[in-house]
């Protein structure tokens, strides 16, 4: 991408610096702890978030930051950063190379810059509103694949009551869409939709820092995002369908069938 904004350059710098920390700890005997919500956290998560926040605040000291590990750094700015220092901590802590650093910036609650970086594959996804989506400096686009070749991923919040819907989706979707996955890293799943490696991702209630960068990647790569019922979606709503757009209406239709089946109102 030519003419990157300073905000995007800083986001890339922060993600790469955090990636070096993750590389240092990956596939080692790193101590794994569990937070109150039963999700894992490691020293790498904390160090990664610390370096990201340090780099951002040095350049933009008046901006707000929402980080997974340290919460919100408040300010009166219309700019807020969304930081997931290790999206896919469970994978990371178990030596599975499917995880990423995710850094995004929103202005008045609209994402304008995003970076998703997987240091194990040296895959740097980045995006800026109105300038397209990129992987390692090459512009990317969503796929044109239709059923039955599509791969659909589902990103659940496993602590929520939506477990029942999740179970139904995993049971019924392979019959219609061929391949259903949960890779364990929402940021990467959305990035893969943007580059055409996956055809859709269904979000069932994760946190804004999990998907902030990924949704802009999908939008700028030519994809489509709606609420579960097909109505317009806007950030930071955390239940949505992101796809290549080819069979999006059918995805909405089938999700609604599953919702009705369990009498869940969405």
Can you describe what's shown?
The protein is an alpha+beta fold and 266 residues long. The protein has two domains: 6-139, Fructose-1,6-Bisphosphatase, Chain A, domain 1 (2-Layer Sandwich); 151-261, D-Maltodextrin-Binding Protein, domain 2, CATH 3.40.190. Helices cover 35% and strands 27% of the residues. The chain is built from seven helices and 15 strands. The chain has helices spanning 6-25, 43-59, 89-93, 163-177, 186-195, 208-220, 248-261; strands at residues 32-34, 40-42, 64-67, 71-73, 79-87, 100-107, 110-118, 123-128, 133-135, 138-140, 151-156, 179-181, 200-204, 224-226, 239-243. An eight-stranded mixed sheet has the order 4-3-5-6-7-8-9-10, with helices on both faces. It has a five-stranded mixed sheet with strand order 12-11-13-15-14, sandwiched between helices. A hairpin with a 2-residue loop joins strand 9 (133-135) and strand 10 (138-140). The protein is globular, with a radius of gyration of 18 Å.
Write the layout of secondary structure elements.
Blueprint (H helix, E strand, L loop, with lengths): L5 H20 L6 E3 L5 E3 H17 L4 E4 L3 E3 L5 E9 L1 H5 L6 E8 L2 E9 L4 E6 L4 E3 L2 E3 L10 E6 L6 H15 L1 E3 L4 H10 L4 E5 L3 H13 L3 E3 L12 E5 L4 H14 L5
Parallel strand pairs: 3-5, 11-12, 11-13
Antiparallel strand pairs: 1-2, 3-4, 5-6, 6-7, 7-8, 8-9, 9-10, 13-15, 14-15
Helix pairs in contact: 1-2, 4-7, 5-6
Q: Any key phrases for this structure?
A:
266 residues, alpha+beta, D-Maltodextrin-Binding Protein, domain 2, 2 domains, 8-stranded mixed sheet, 7 helices, 27% strand
């Amino acid at each position: 991408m030519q003419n990157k904004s300073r905000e995007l350059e800083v986001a890339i710098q922060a993600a790469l610096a955090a990636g070096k920390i993750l590389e240092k700890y990956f596939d080692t005997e790193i101590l794994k702890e569990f937070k109150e919500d039963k999700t894992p956290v490691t020293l790498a998560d904390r160090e990664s978030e610390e370096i990201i926040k340090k780099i951002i605040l040095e350049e933009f000291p008046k901006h707000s930051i929402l980080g997974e590990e340290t919460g919100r750094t408040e300010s009166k700015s219309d700019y807020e950063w969304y930081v997931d220092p290790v999206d896919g901590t469970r994978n990371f802590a178990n030596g599975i190379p499917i995880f990423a650093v995710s850094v995004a910036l929103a202005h008045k609650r609209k994402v304008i810059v995003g970076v998703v970086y997987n240091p194990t594959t040296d895959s740097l996804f980045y995006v800026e509103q109105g300038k397209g989506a990129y992987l390692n400096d090459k512009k990317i686009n969503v796929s044109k694949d239709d059923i039955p070749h599509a791969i659909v991923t589902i990103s659940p919040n496993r602590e929520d009551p939506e477990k029942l819907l999740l179970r139904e989706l995993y049971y019924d979707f392979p019959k219609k869409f061929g391949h259903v996955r949960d890779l364990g890293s929402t940021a990467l799943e959305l990035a893969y939709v943007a580059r055409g490696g996956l055809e859709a991702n269904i979000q069932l209630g994760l946190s804004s820092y999990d998907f902030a960068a990924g949704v802009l990647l999908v939008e700028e790569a030519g994809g489509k995002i709606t609420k579960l019922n097909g109505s317009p979606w806007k950030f930071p709503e955390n239940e949505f369908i992101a796809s290549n757009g080819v069979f999006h209406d059918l995805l909405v239709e089938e999700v609604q069938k599953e919702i009705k089946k369990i009498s869940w109102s969405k």
